[in-house]
Design a protein that fits this description.
Strand order of the largest sheet: 2-1-3-4-5-6
Largest sheet: 6 strands, parallel
Number of strands: 9
Structural class: alpha/beta
Shape: globular
Oligomer: single chain
Distance between the termini: 43 Å
Length: about 220
């Protein structure tokens, strides 16, 4: 029987892009996407933690979700999960926990859980990750513009900011991958591309490029206006 998945995105445009990429993973495996307020077989909450309020909203959403379907798989991922995995694991409704660096394997992890039914916290340390995690979005249902995550992480470590601990150090999407993804989007009819990142101006610091290089590369692609 075909299974359904519902995704709730809290926080920034980077999270929105990553949620779209996760949705495509599930679609390729035969799941169908449903609204988050409907009964689903799998619920995914992509959390935020940039402020205390956003962390609280994440916790509230986690606790509320399984009321929609007590037998559903509940996956919590994203920034709050990365920075407070013990807090998330203490919430009994949660089945799987992923951080910010492993979203590319979300569907694989869920399919394994459906077989084993073993709760797991799979948050890995960001110190180990020095490469940009390759995610891809090929279309945005009902939208005329496409968002593209080109940068992750921050090296500033400001005393008031949790972002480097939630997202790690600066990592940039390789220019060839960026061009390939935008070319796909252009072929689908998208004419406007929004580049996004955790600290967007830091794009290229790790690969000897500058944000201008990304902008110029996208503008040179046929069909992008």
């Amino acid at each position: 029987m075909t299974k359904s998945v519902a995704i709730c995105t809290l926080g920034c445009k980077v999270n929105a892009y990553e949620s779209e990429a996760v949705a495509e993973q599930f679609a390729k495996r035969g799941f169908f996407l449903t609204d988050f307020d409907q009964a689903a077989d799998v619920y995914i909450i992509n959390t935020c933690t940039v402020t205390h309020l956003s962390s609280r909203k994440s916790r509230q959403m986690i606790r509320r979700t399984k009321q929609l379907n007590p037998n559903a798989v509940l996956v919590v991922m994203g920034c709050y999960a990365q920075t407070a995995p013990e807090e998330v694991a203490a919430i009994p409704e949660v089945d799987l926990i992923l951080g910010t660096g492993d979203k590319g394997r979300t569907a694989d992890v869920v399919e394994e859980f459906l077989l084993t039914r073993k709760r797991a916290c799979l948050v890995s340390g960001l110190d180990e990750k020095d490469e940009f995690e390759e995610l891809c979005v090929t279309s945005y249902e009902g939208r005329s513009r496409a968002f593209l995550k080109v940068q992750d992480g921050c090296n500033n470590f400001c005393s008031y900011c949790i972002i480097p601990y939630a997202r790690g150090r600066v990592r940039s999407k390789p220019l060839d991958d960026l061009i390939a993804e935008v070319t796909q989007l252009s072929e689908k009819g998208y004419k406007e591309i929004v580049l996004t990142g955790i600290n967007l101006s830091a794009f290229g610091q790790d690969i000897n490029l500058h944000l201008c290089d990304a902008v110029e590369a996208v503008c040179a692609i046929n069909g992008i206006e």
